[in-house]
From TrEMBL:
CDD domains membership: crotonase-like
One GO location term (cellular component): peroxisome
Name used for this protein in its record: Peroxisomal bifunctional enzyme
Record text on subunit structure and interactions: Monomer.
Primary location group: other
Highest taxon of source: Eukaryota
Classification lineage: Eukaryota, Metazoa, Chordata, Craniata, Vertebrata
Gene3D superfamilies according to UniProt: 1.10.1040.50, 2-enoyl-CoA Hydratase, Chain A, domain 1, NAD(P)-binding Rossmann-like Domain
Annotated ranges, domain 3-hydroxyacyl-CoA dehydrogenase C-terminal: 418-522, 559-646
Organism: Astatotilapia calliptera (Eastern happy)
Pathway assigned to this chain's UniProt record: Lipid metabolism; fatty acid beta-oxidation
SUPFAM superfamilies linked: 6-phosphogluconate dehydrogenase C-terminal domain-like, ClpP/crotonase, NAD(P)-binding Rossmann-fold domains
Length: 663
C-alpha cells in the first residue's frame, strides 16, 4: 500500500531520499524489477511502480495519480511515463481528474501486466522468476515513444478548452495538460525538465496550499465535537437497519434514493395519493438510472411505499422532509413521537428551522437532530447534522454514521436560524441585492463570482433554486410586506437596510427558471440557458428612480469583497457562537454544499489567505459606508484574531476558545 508522498510534508522540508533518481535507478537496473501492488498505489506510489519493469496488482487494488486534487501534478515522472505506457487520451483522463481506477480498469489500460486474487507478492516473485532471462530494453517506459492520435495539436487544444471550462480557475489541471503535452511532443529528458518547471510553480502556489488544507479539513470534520464536550471518539452510534422518509417532494425523493442505494430498507411515506404515485415513479427512475451507470441492479425492493404514518412504527430512524413550515413539521413530529418505538431517532431535513422546537413535540427530545441534505439529495455530498440543546451525543453519532454510510460528507453543527450554510448565505445574498440597488446588474455580479470560481453566480443560482422559496420564508417572517401606510415597498426593516427586489420579482410571478423569468429570462419555463433580460434592467432603473437611488459604477473588487467578506464575517460569528466547532467545518460545508471553489480552500481559509487584517479593514470601510447593514460590522472574533497577530488557521481554535470563555 502506498498513498504517495506525505501531504503534511509539502509545507516544509521533505524527508527521505529524492524519488526521481530512485525511480531512474530502478528503471535502469539490469535485473527485472516487478512491482507488487496490494491495496493502493497512488501518486508517488504509482510513479515508483511505473519505474519498474512489470506491474502485478491484486484484483482489489486501486491505482491513480491524484496529485491534481492537491494542486500539483505527478512530479516524479508520472506525467511523462503514464502517457508513454497507456497512450495520451487515457493518461490525460487519469492525470487531469486524479481519479482512482480499479485493478480491472488498470489492466484494460495496460497500466498493469497482470492481476491476481492471491498473495500479490508471491505472484510477483514467481512472475519475476519467469521473466528473469528476458531482455529489459522493451520494458523501460521512459524509452517508449508516446502513443498519440495523429493530430496532437488539435487533441490538446480541445482538451485544454474542456479542462479550462471545468477547472473554474484552478491552475493544476491546466499544468497537468501542459505536462502531458510535453510527453507527447518532446524527448523524455526535455519532458522531465518541463514537468519539473511546472511542478515548481504549482508546489509553492496558494492553490496547492488551499487544496492540501482541504484534504485534511474533509477528514477533520469526522472528528466532531459539541460545546457540551461530547466528541466523536467517546460517543458510540447505534446501528440503523431500517429508516423512514416522511414527505416525498424533491428532497424526500432524493433522500429515499440515497438510503436505498446504500442498502437501507426504507419506508417512504406520502399522504397525498397523487404525489405518492408521482414520487414512486420518480424514485424508481432515479434508482434505475443510477444502477445502470454503476452496472448494478436497482435497489427498488428496498423501498416500501405508504400513505399512512403508522407504517413507520418499527423503523430505527425517521427523516422528515415535509414542506418547510414549522406548524406542519410540529404536527408531524407529534405524530411520529406517538407512532414510533421509543428508541427511534427522529430527524428533520429542515434547511434552517429551530430543531429544539421540533424536539419539544416529542417524548424523547434527546433523540431528535436535524439532517439537512442539499438538493439533489442523492447527488450532493454534504449533510449538516444539527444538534439542538437537547440532542444527545448518541443521536449525533448515529446521524453522522448514517451520513457516512450513504456516502455523505457529514458536518455536525449547532442549532440556529439557517445553521451554518444558509446562515452565511443570507448576508451574501443580501449584499448582491444591495449591489443591484446601487447600480450593478445580475450579469455583472454573477460574472465576478463565477470568475472567482463559483459554479454559478448568486442570481443564476437563485433562478435555479426558485425565488419563491425565500419569498415564502420572508412572508412568514413578516418581511416581504409593503409599508402599510404608503403601500410602497420599503427599504428598511427594524432600522436595518432591506432590499425588496426579490419580493417585487416574485409578485410579478418571476420565480426563476421554472417560470421562464427571474433575474434572467429563459426561452421557456424550465430552460437552463440564462439570458440578460432588458425588462429587468429597466425595472432596476425605475426602482432606483422611485427610491432616489443614484446608480454608481461598481467594480469587480467591490462585488467580490462585499459578497465574500460579509459571508466570512458571518462565519466568524458562527465560530464565536460555537455553532461550528472550527473553520474546517465551515469550509467543508461551503465547498460541498455551495460550490465554493475548492482551490480557494473554503471561505475561512480564503480569509486567512487574503489576510485577516485586510478583511477587517475592508469590512470597516464598507460598514462605515453602510451603517444600516449590520452584517458588515466586523465581529468580535475577527477583531480578536487580528489583535492576536492573525495566527495561522490551524491555531484559530485556541483564540476561539478564549473568546468563548470570556462570553
Ligand atoms: C515529488 C512528489 C511526487 C508525487 O507525485 C507527489 C504525491 O505523491 S502527492 C500524494 C498523492 N497521494 C494522495 O493524494 C493520496 C491521498 N490519500 C487518499 O486518497 C486516501 O487517504 C486513501 C485512499 C489513501 C485512504 O483512504 P481511507 O482509507 O478512506 O483513509 P483516510 O483518507 O481517512 O486516510 C487515513 C489517514 O491517513 C492520512 N493520509 C492519507 N494519505 C495521506 C498522505 N498521502 N499524506 C499524509 N496523510 C495521508 C489521512 O489524512 C488520514 O489521517 P487521519 O489523521 O486519520 O485523518
Amino acid at each position: 500500500m502506498h498513498s504517495g508522498a506525505d501531504i503534511k510534508e509539502f509545507g516544509g522540508q521533505m524527508s527521505g531520499p529524492p524519488l526521481i533518481p530512485m525511480i531512474h535507478a530502478i528503471e535502469a537496473a539490469s535485473k527485472p524489477v516487478v512491482a507488487a501492488i496490494e491495496g493502493i498505489a497512488l501518486g508517488g506510489g504509482l510513479e515508483l511502480a511505473l519505474g519498474c519493469h512489470y506491474r502485478i496488482a491484486h484484483s482489489k487494488a486501486r491505482v491513480g495519480l491524484p496529485e491534481v486534487t492537491l494542486g500539483l501534478l505527478p512530479g516524479a515522472g508520472g506525467s511523462q511515463r503514464l502517457p508513454r505506457l497507456i497512450g495520451v487520451p487515457a493518461a490525460l483522463d487519469l492525470i487531469t481528474t486524479g481519479r482512482h481506477v480499479t485493478a480491472a480498469e488498470a489492466l484494460k489500460f495496460g497500466l498493469v501486466d497482470q492481476i491476481t486474487d492471491h498473495n500479490t507478492v508471491n505472484v510477483a516473485v514467481k512472475f519475476a522468476q519467469r521473466v528473469a532471462d528476458q531482455p529489459l530494453d522493451a520494458r523501460r517506459i521512459s524509452t517508449y515513444p508516446c502513443l498519440c492520435p495523429s493530430d496532437v495539436a488539435v487533441l490538446f487544444e480541445e482538451v485544454m478548452q474542456r479542462v479550462r471550462r471545468t477547472a473554474r480557475g484552478a491552475i493544476a489541471p491546466i499544468a497537468c495538460v501542459q505536462a502531458v503535452r510535453a510527453a507527447a511532443t518532446l524527448p523524455y529528458n526535455q519532458g522531465m525538465e518541463r514537468e519539473r518547471e511546472l511542478m515548481a510553480t504549482l508546489f509553492t502556489s496558494g492553490q496547492a496550499r488551499a487544496l492540501q488544507y482541504f484534504f485534511f479539513a474533509q477528514r477533520a470534520v469526522g472528528r466532531w465535537s459539541m460545546p457540551s464536550g461530547a466528541r466523536w471518539d467517546t460517543s458510540k452510534p447505534r446501528p440503523v437497519h431500517k429508516a423512514a422518509v416522511i414527505g416525498l417532494g424533491t428532497m424526500g425523493r432524493g433522500i429515499t434514493v440515497a438510503l436505498a442505494q446504500a442498502g437501507f430498507s426504507v419506508v417512504a411515506v406520502e399522504t397525498q395519493e397523487k404525489q405518492l404515485m408521482e414520487a414512486k415513479q420518480a424514485i424508481s427512475g432515479m434508482l434505475e438510472r443510477g444502477a445502470k451507470r454503476r452496472g448494478v441492479a436497482p435497489a427498488l425492493d428496498k423501498i416500501n411505499y405508504g400513505r399512512n404514518i403508522q407504517s413507520v412504527a418499527d423503523v430505527d430512524l425517521v427523516i422528515e422532509a415535509v414542506f418547510e413550515d414549522m406548524a406542519l413539521k410540529k404536527k408531524v413530529f407529534q405524530q411520529l413521537s406517538a407512532v414510533c418505538k421509543p428508541s427511534t431517532f427522529l430527524c428533520s431535513n429542515t434547511s434552517g428551522l429551530d430543531i429544539d422546537q421540533l424536539a419539544c413535540q416529542t417524548r424523547n427530545p434527546e433523540l431528535v437532530v436535524g439532517m439537512h441534505f442539499f438538493a439533489p439529495a442523492h447527488v450532493m455530498k454534504l449533510l449538516e447534522v444539527v444538534y439542538g440543546p437537547k440532542s444527545s451525543p448518541l443521536a449525533v453519532a448515529t446521524a453522522m454514521q448514517l451520513g457516512k454510510k450513504i456516502g455523505k460528507v457529514s458536518v455536525a453543527v449547532g442549532n440556529c436560524r439557517g445553521f451554518v450554510g444558509n446562515r452565511m448565505l443570507k448576508p451574501y445574498l443580501e449584499q448582491a441585492l444591495f449591489l443591484l440597488e446601487e447600480g450593478a446588474t445580475p450579469e455583472f455580479v454573477d460574472q465576478v463570482l463565477e470568475e472567482f470560481g463559483f459554479a454559478m453566480g448568486v442570481f443564476r443560482m437563485s433562478d435555479l433554486s426558485g425565488l419563491d422559496v425565500g419569498w415564502k420564508v420572508r412572508m412568514a417572517d413578516g418581511l416581504a410586506m409593503p409599508d402599510p401606510t404608503t403601500g410602497q415597498p420599503t427599504r428598511l426593516r427594524q432600522g436595518r437596510r432591506y432590499s425588496p427586489l426579490g419580493d417585487l420579482l416574485c409578485e410579478q410571478g418571476r420565480f426563476g427558471q421554472k417560470t421562464g423569468r427571474g433575474w434572467y429570462q429563459y426561452d421557456k419555463p424550465g430552460s437552463q440557458v440564462a439570458k440578460p433580460d432588458p425588462w429587468l434592467h429597466s425595472f432596476l432603473d425605475e426602482y432606483r428612480a422611485r427610491h432616489a437611488l443614484v446608480a454608481h459604477r461598481i467594480d469587480h473588487q467591490e462585488v467580490l469583497e462585499r459578497c465574500l467578506y460579509s459571508m466570512i464575517n458571518e462565519g466568524f460569528r458562527i465560530l464565536e457562537d460555537g455553532i461550528a466547532a472550527g473553520p474546517e467545518d465551515i469550509d467543508v460545508i461551503y465547498v460541498f454544499g455551495y460550490s465554493w471553489p475548492r482551490h480557494h480552500g473554503g471561505p475561512m481559509f480564503y480569509a486567512a489567505t487574503v489576510g485577516l487584517n485586510k478583511v477587517l479593514e475592508r469590512l470597516e470601510h464598507y460598514y462605515q459606508a453602510h451603517p444600516d447593514v449590520p452584517s458588515l460590522q466586523p465581529c468580535h472574533l475577527l477583531r480578536k484574531l487580528v489583535a492576536s497577530g492573525s495566527p495561522p488557521i490551524q491555531k484559530w481554535r485556541e483564540v476561539i476558545k478564549k473568546v468563548r470563555s470570556q462570553l
